[in-house]
């Protein structure tokens, strides 16, 4: 029995309708930007396995750090205890985060990082004796699959089964070029008409909606509007963090800074699940009280797992090397060259690039659904040609490991261009 056949007997996969989906590909090995399946077919991982693996598969530097930590302390509860890896990681992150971020709370993944932030925003005002129960979010946002994170997400089929059970969310349009004022006006209206505790956003790039991009200046203004109206701001950097946009954090492009930031995915280099939500001291101080009921009663069994902290420290070390920064610049340069080459293609309507992120939109007569026939046709074509890409409707994006070679990137571009012939 093959791994695929055993998988179908036991396992339930994410975002999958198992009655109609093909069997998942069984991967046996990875190295750098490459993966090999059980039949030894080679694939280029052009999306860094859902954006988590910027330094390449089976990275020996991170693996050695994990091994060393496992032989010292694999885990200890974080309730009433602490340990050196968490403290050192906090110190390293505080050095590179926006300077208003002073406190870190550990959790397990991007969704839980967002869950913590939303709970903190709501309880912040509760602790101060104010009733603010609404969160503002962008149209077509995606912040995760736990309940508060799901509520803040705007992709309907992710949430339609749970309508009427979710926290109060008011949505505003994304401030894409030419629509900035619509977003400013909608934010002001939302704050005026609702008791808004916080505004959550994916800074500069909306990932799951198809790498929709907008400018730092517009986000600066949205944050200022919130600050002027005592609404907390939450930057969901789960996707954009740790170099994806060309800077360490997308918020590094801003002059205004959020009150909270959510980190995960590339935090540990794609090795161990871990997330961190960061806060200003003012937010922490709203929970710092002799009244036990004002504490943040939230936690996870593997909070601040020492092994995960060791992986994160190794990942940060790699990110900060000149070699990795040069890789990020190199991938960005190649993306810009491919953009110039492909943007005039008759089947391409728009292209966009930021850091190591490239996206193009394919011209269609009707709106392409998220998991519709066009998306599935493209996905199958890419897999057949040995490239892992997951289109979003009619949008094809590339977000590769920073260590991908120029030759591997060129193959990805060629396969994407060839795919335009089949649509």
UniProtKB/TrEMBL annotation:
InterPro entries per record: Aminotrans_3, BioA, PyrdxlP-dep_Trfase, PyrdxlP-dep_Trfase_major, PyrdxlP-dep_Trfase_small
Species: Flavobacterium nackdongense
Identification of the protein by name: Adenosylmethionine-8-amino-7-oxononanoate aminotransferase
A molecular function (GO) term: 2 iron, 2 sulfur cluster binding
Needed co-factor(s): pyridoxal 5'-phosphate
Binding partners and assembly: Homodimer.
Record localization: Cytoplasm
Annotated substrate binding sites: 50, 265, 299, 390
Keywords: Aminotransferase, Biotin biosynthesis, Cytoplasm, Pyridoxal phosphate, S-adenosyl-L-methionine, Transferase
UniProt modified residues of type N6-(pyridoxal phosphate)lysine: 265
Lineage summary: Bacteria, Pseudomonadati, Bacteroidota, Flavobacteriia, Flavobacteriales
E.C. no: 2.6.1.62
Pathway: Cofactor biosynthesis; biotin biosynthesis; 7,8-diaminononanoate from 8-amino-7-oxononanoate (SAM route): step 1/1
Similarity comment: family membership: Belongs to the class-III pyridoxal-phosphate-dependent aminotransferase family. BioA subfamily.
Role of this protein: Catalyzes the transfer of the alpha-amino group from S-adenosyl-L-methionine (SAM) to 7-keto-8-aminopelargonic acid (KAPA) to form 7,8-diaminopelargonic acid (DAPA). It is the only aminotransferase known to utilize SAM as an amino donor.
UniProt site positions, description: Participates in the substrate recognition with KAPA and in a stacking interaction with the adenine ring of SAM: 15
HAMAP family: BioA (MF_00834)
Catalytic activity: (8S)-8-amino-7-oxononanoate + S-adenosyl-L-methionine = S-adenosyl-4-methylsulfanyl-2-oxobutanoate + (7R,8S)-7,8-diammoniononanoate
């Amino acid at each position: 029995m093959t791994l695929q056949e055993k998988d179908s007997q036991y396992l339930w996969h994410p975002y999958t309708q198992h009655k109609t989906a093909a069997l998942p590909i069984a991967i046996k090995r990875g190295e750098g930007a490459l993966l090999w399946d059980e039949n030894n077919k080679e694939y280029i991982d052009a999306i860094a396995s859902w954006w988590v693996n910027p330094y390449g598969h089976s990275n020996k530097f991170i693996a050695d750090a994990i091994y060393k930590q496992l032989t010292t302390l694999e885990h200890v509860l974080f309730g009433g205890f602490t340990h050196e890896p968490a403290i050192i990681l906090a110190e390293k992150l505080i050095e590179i985060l926006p300077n208003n971020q002073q406190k870190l709370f550990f959790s397990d993944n991007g969704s839980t990082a967002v869950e913590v932030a939303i709970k903190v925003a709501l309880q912040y005002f509760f602790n101060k004796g104010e009733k603010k129960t609404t969160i503002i979010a962008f149209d077509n946002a995606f912040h995760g699959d736990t309940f508060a994170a799901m509520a803040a997400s705007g992709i309907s089929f992710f949430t339609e089964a749970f309508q009427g059970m979710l926290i109060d969310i008011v949505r505003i349009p994304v401030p894409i070029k030419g629509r900035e004022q619509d977003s400013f006006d909608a934010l002001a209206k939302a704050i005026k008409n609702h008791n808004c505790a916080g505004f959550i956003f994916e800074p500069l790039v909306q990932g799951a909606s198809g790498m929709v991009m907008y400018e730092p200046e517009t986000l600066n203004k949205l944050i200022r509007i919130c600050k002027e109206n005592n609404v907390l701001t939450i930057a969901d950097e789960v996707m954009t963090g740790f170099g994806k946009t060309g800077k360490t954090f997308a918020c590094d492009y801003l002059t205004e800074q959020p009150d909270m930031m959510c980190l995960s995915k590339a935090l540990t280099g794609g090795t161990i699940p871990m997330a961190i939500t960061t806060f200003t001291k003012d937010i922490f101080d709203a929970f710092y009280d002799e009244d036990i009921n004002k504490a943040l009663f939230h936690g996870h069994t593997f909070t601040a797992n020492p092994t995960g902290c060791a992986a994160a420290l190794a990942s940060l070390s790699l990110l900060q090397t000149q070699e990795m920064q040069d890789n990020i610049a190199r991938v960005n340069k190649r993306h810009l060259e491919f953009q110039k080459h492909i943007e005039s293609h008759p089947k391409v309507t728009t292209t966009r690039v930021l850091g190591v992120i490239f996206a193009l939109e394919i011209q269609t007569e009707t709106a392409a659904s998220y998991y519709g026939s066009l998306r599935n046709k493209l996905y199958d074509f890419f897999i057949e040609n040995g490239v892992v890409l997951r289109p979003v409707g009619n949008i094809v994006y590339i977000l590769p490991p920073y260590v991908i070679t120029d030759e591997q990137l060129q193959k990805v571009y060629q396969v994407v261009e060839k795919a335009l012939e089949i649509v």
